[in-house]
Amino acid sequence: MRTTAAVLHSPVAPFEVEQIDLAEPGPGEVLVRLAACGMCHTDLSMRASHRPTPYPVVLGHEGSGHVAGLGAGVSGLEIGQPVVLSYASCGRCRPCRTGEPTYCERMWELNFRCCRADGTTALSREGVRVGSHFFGQSSFASHAVVSETSVVPVDTDAPIELLGPLGCGVQTGAGAVLNVLRPDPGASIAIWGCGAVGLSALLAAVVAGCKTIIGVDIHPGRRDMAIELGATAVVDGSADVVTEVLSLTGGRGVEYGFDAVGAPGTLENAVASLAPRGTCGFVAAGGPEQMASFSPRHLLFGRTVTGILEGDSVPHVFIPQLLELHRTGRFPFDRLITTFALDEVNEAESASHRGDVIKPVLLMP
Ligand SMILES: [Zn+2]
Ligand SMILES: [Zn+2]
């Protein structure tokens, strides 16, 4: 069949919206008619030189829509079922079997080679291979063929076109707080980066009952948004952030830190702002050349630093939980979203880089 997709032909080219060919779903795969797809930092970072991206490729990994076809052996899904798509996992390795699929031993192979496990792609253009299955999806398109492990059925009255970000950016931030840091009610937390991931963490900190929630960002508009969503204080990321956070906590530091930025120095600042026995999680790390340094003496006082992938989320469990919090008004993640037509994909990317929008979502034709 034909699909309308935003195709990236080189790391420096704009996206081109084109009609290309999409294969039938193979064994264990599902054809999804996408309603929309969020744009995530990882999509845009595929242009970076340290990512071995095969071109041309269709990116996009925050898709939502409806099941439109089932490959052989797929069970538990029906045509028309509303779904949110997330990363792919093998379902068979030890981390998958122990409920930690974000650490699947085949995570890289299944999500970043831009092809199926057997090396084939579901997408092509005039007989030429086009990368598919990016982050389990390639959802910047009207249709996608994905592994059934990526497909999360949802039962909700919420508009389906707003739900895709739950599959990556929102679960990454919210899961870091609710699944990993698990702050007690009344705790203090500082969040570096008030983009989609950081603000999802902030909304989760409100759900968890944190009493002190400090948002750090260089963009004034994002700091304003942090206050609107429940931050009790904000700090300009270009200021002396550690001094500011310490002064906001009586000199003690915060019990929890979260670095959603991953720029040089942000993790060091987040760790330096921790109180004794504090824990700092981070979800972004820059390229392989980026280093961070901490004083062992500082960490010796019971402080913990931990990397977190996809919020340690088991999508089939955590996404319905976030939707229930959203239904009751406690998790208004949709306030982070600005919608664009698929044809406006390059405008969405520019607006995201400028910091004008927090979570662009592309609506499919
Ligand atoms: Zn696995
Ligand atoms: Zn993502």
What topology does this entry show?
Elements: E1 2-8, E2 16-22, E3 29-38, H1 41-45, E4 57-58, E5 63-70, E6 82-85, H2 94-97, H3 107-112, E7 123-125, E8 128-130, E9 143-147, E10 151-153, H4 169-181, E11 188-192, H5 196-207, E12 212-217, H6 220-229, E13 233-236, H7 241-248, E14 254-259, H8 266-272, E15 274-282, H9 296-300, E16 304-307, H10 315-327, E17 337-341, H11 345-354, E18 359-363
Parallel strand pairs: 11-12, 11-14, 12-13, 14-15, 15-16, 17-18
Antiparallel strand pairs: 1-2, 1-4, 2-7, 3-5, 3-9, 3-18, 5-6, 6-10, 7-8
Helix pairs in contact: 4-5
The structure holds zinc ion (2 copies).
One zinc ion (ZN) binds next to loops.
3D structure, described in words:
The protein is α/β, with parallel strands linked by helices and 365 residues long. It has 2 domains: 2-167 and 332-363, Medium-chain alcohol dehydrogenases, catalytic domain (Quinone Oxidoreductase, Chain A, domain 1), CATH 3.90.180; 173-309, NAD(P)-binding Rossmann-like Domain (Rossmann fold, 3-Layer(aba) Sandwich), CATH 3.40.50.720. It has 11 helices and 18 strands. It has helices spanning 41-45, 94-97, 107-112, 169-181, 196-207, 220-229, 241-248, 266-272, 296-300, 315-327, 345-354; strands at 2-8, 16-22, 29-38, 57-58, 63-70, 82-85, 123-125, 128-130, 143-147, 151-153, 188-192, 212-217, 233-236, 254-259, 274-282, 304-307, 337-341, 359-363. Strands 3, 5, 6, 9, 10, 17 and 18 form a 7-stranded mixed β-sheet that branches. A 6-stranded parallel β-sheet has the order 13-12-11-14-15-16, with helices on both faces. Helix 4 (169-181) crosses helix 5. The protein binds zinc ion (2 copies). Residues 89-90, 92-93, 95-96, 104-106 line the site of one zinc ion.
